[in-house]
Amino acid sequence: xxASNSGPRFRVLGSKxxxxxxxxxxxEDALRSGMRPGDPNWGAxxxxxxxxxxxxxxxxxxxxxxxxxxHYYTAIADTLINGAxxxxxPADAVRSIGILETARRMAAES
Length: 110
What we know:
It is a single chain. By secondary structure, the protein is α+β, with helices and mostly antiparallel strands. The protein is about 35% helix and about 15% strand. It has helices at about 25-30, 70-80, 90-110, and strands at about 10-15, 20, 50-55, 60. A 4-stranded antiparallel β-sheet has the order 1-2-3-4, with no helix packed on it. The chain is extended, with a radius of gyration of 18 Å.
């Protein structure tokens, strides 16, 4: 985030409720601090960064699922070594790049 006042990391709005979550995935900071996958608290988010679900005045706190970067990289290895299906469909990756390129082009035009 490069904004001077960052907002929620995730904000999903529905017709009956919303889910809002602040903060980034904790795994990168955990690695920097010396923690490793498999450690008891690996991927556990801080309670202060849990998301909320509901409407103003009526929300519940939703515990963040633990991060598991290692499963993604294990799946990549399985794809490369054993020919297993990739963990991310290449067509989805191409579409994502197209969206980013369109956003950059539109920003440059404005």
